[in-house]
Design brief:
- This protein has about 550 residues and is mainly alpha-helical.
- It contains 24 helices and 14 strands.
- The protein has 4 domains: about 170 residues, HUPs (Rossmann fold, 3-Layer(aba) Sandwich); about 80 residues; about 60 residues, no CATH class; about 90 residues, Orthogonal Bundle (Arc Repressor Mutant, subunit A), CATH 1.10.10.350.
- The strands form 6 sheets. It has a 3-stranded antiparallel beta sheet. It has a 3-stranded mixed beta sheet with strand order 13-12-14, with no helix packed on it.
- Strand 1, helix 3 and strand 2 form a beta-alpha-beta unit.
- Helix 14 runs antiparallel to helix 15.
């Protein structure tokens, strides 16, 4: 009996060879220097911001070099698969205008290197595993869970490394005849890779972020095919797919650095050059005085769904991530405001090599406020309307009913040299403008008039003001009337004079303006009061005043 007999027994229906697949997946016809990257998520949960950061880097690398960015679903862990994860992942890429050049989704395949879903590539993996068995680099392992638990307990008590290696790799010592007999007796088994590595020796590995590293060789006989569904493990499927799809660069989190010896040995076993690896730093966040890893459980901003629900501009989210992806991005962007992030040349050497990358929501808010301030009022309206249609039906109806009015509201202090920066995302717009809509203004409101709190005085100010108000007045005329009212009621219209002699007056023009502002908005701080009053109109202003008489 030979290893070829063993391989045929395990895979009787596999009649293709590795050479067949190499011919089916030829070298890509790309220009010199073009890079091929892949985003390869597992559909086992929501899209984490760390996953998205990796996808963004993949996308930028491919676009910088006029290469290929493809999407591959790594669904070999089907027990943990989450319903709708495929659509969530694909739609996020689509929403952020990062649609892959090649993908398989919703019955549609784009590209010639698929299937792009690993569970559909089972026959390909089996062909490669069969080859390993034939050349003596893989074997069936019949160790039960109980036996493996005993082995780990023994290793722990003897203070040995935990794992299936050396003297502990008992099934690698079985003869071919014994292996065949066990299979024929229907004993369950997995397929393990037979390592030739020596953990006492190190090899050089070039990580594009951290530079040259010396890493111990792998000596573990790790599993490459599971017993339950005969699908490969992540390690093996990743090797086969990246090899056949001609991936040039793999971007993944630094937690995968420990897997490098396994992956390098797999590529070496087939005489294939590995792709280049970019191990990205962990995404960190400030928590009080401390800095910690961003958490799926604790931090809502860890999920990409958070940014959709709050409706941050996709441009702002990308900009905020680019600032932590490359340390020189922010300076570049400030000097190239007319360009997009795709004009920036990404460099792995400009990534943080240690200590993680701090992601600050406040910084995102500032980036977002700045971005939204540069949009036209119509653009803000369209984006807020799209958000409200999904997340706030009442506000959506108001925006739809009062389209032109709403655009004018969003245009307050916008078309000027330094536009107002109120909105950090489209979710926050409603809490900034609610008072401009009578349907939201309501009756049970709290007013804080700051310095002037006497009800009779407030009533007197408002009644006098409404008699003088003319909605056709320009801004200078309007303000002169406010100053006239101020003096008429015993307040000071000149702030310098008031600061010099405050005891001579009941208050200042600022106090009068505050009473008017609070009466129509309930707030002491708002955008330009003249514009607010002009949009509300005299009739609505008077009704709001009457609520306070």
């Amino acid at each position: 009996m030979t290893t070829k007999d063993l391989a045929n027994l395990i895979f009787p229906d596999i009649d293709k060879t590795i050479e067949d697949y190499k011919n089916m997946y030829p070298e890509r016809n790309l220009k010199e220097g073009a890079k091929v990257t892949r985003f390869a998520p597992s559909p086992t949960g929501f899209m984490h911001i760390g996953n998205f950061q990796s996808a963004l880097i993949d996308y930028v690398i491919a676009k910088n070099s006029e290469g290929v960015f493809y999407l591959r679903f790594e669904d070999t862990d089907q027990m943990r698969e989450v319903k709708d994860a495929y659509s969530v992942i694909f739609n996020i890429l689509n929403d952020y205008k990062m649609l892959p050049d090649e993908y398989e989704y919703d019955g549609k395949t784009v590209g010639n290197y698929g299937p792009y879903v690993q569970s559909k590539r089972k026959e390909i993996y089996h062909t490669f595993i069969k080859h390993l068995i034939e050349i003596g680099r893989a074997y069936p392992c019949f160790c039960s869970k109980e036996k493996l638990d005993e082995m780990r307990e023994s290793q722990t008590s003897r203070k040995k490394r935990i794992g299936y290696y050396g003297v502990y790799a008992t099934c690698r010592k079985l003869s071919v005849e014994e292996q065949i007999e066990k299979i024929k007796n229907n004993e369950p088994y997995v397929i393990r890779f037979k390592s030739n590595g020596n953990n006492e020796q190190k090899f050089k590995f070039d990580d594009l972020v951290r530079g040259t590293l010396l890493i111990p060789e792998n000596d573990m006989d790790f599993i490459i095919m599971k017993s339950s569904d005969k699908l490969p493990t992540y390690h093996f499927a990743h090797f086969v797919d990246d090899y056949l799809m001609h991936t040039t660069h793999v971007v993944r989190g630094e937690e995968w650095l420990s897997s490098v010896p396994i992956h390098v040995e797999l590529f070496n076993a087939f005489g294939v050059k590995p792709p280049k690896y970019i191990h990205t730093p962990l995404i960190l966040k400030k928590d009080g005085e401390n800095v910690r890893k961003i958490s799926k459980r604790k931090d809502p901003e860890a999920s990409m769904s958070y940014y959709k629900e709050k409706c941050y501009p996709i441009e702002s989210v990308i900009e905020s991530l680019m600032t932590i992806i490359n340390s020189n991005y922010e300076q570049w962007h400030e000097s190239n405001l007319e360009k997009t992030y795709l004009d920036f040349t990404f460099s792995p050497k400009k990534m943080s090599a240690s200590g993680g990358a701090l992601y600050d929501i406040e910084k995102l808010n500032n980036i977002s406020k700045n971005f939204i301030s540069k949009l036209s009022a119509s653009e803000v309206y369209d984006r807020v309307l799209n958000w409200a249609k999904i997340y706030d039906n009442d506000f959506y109806e108001l925006l739809s009913k009062y389209k032109e009015y709403s655009i004018n509201v969003f245009n307050i202090e916008r078309e000027q040299k330094k536009p107002r920066k109120d909105y950090e995302n489209y979710f926050s717009v409603k809490k900034q403008v609610w008072y401009m809509y009578d349907e939201l203004f309501g009756d049970s409101l709290e007013y804080n008039f700051d310095k002037i709190n006497d009800k009779e005085e407030i009533s007197k100010i408002l009644k006098t003001y409404i008699e003088m108000y003319n909605e056709s007045d320009d801004k200078d005329t309007w303000f002169n009337k406010v100053k006239e009212l101020t003096e008429k009621l015993g307040y000071c219209s000149n702030m310098k004079e008031y600061k010099l002699n405050p005891d001579k007056y009941k208050g200042s023009v600022a106090d009068i303006s505050t009473v008017i502002r609070v009466a129509v908005t309930t707030l002491t701080m708002t955008p330009d009061l003249y514009e607010i009053l002009r949009l509300l109109g005299k009739e609505r202003i008077e009704k709001r005043f009457e609520m306070l008489y």
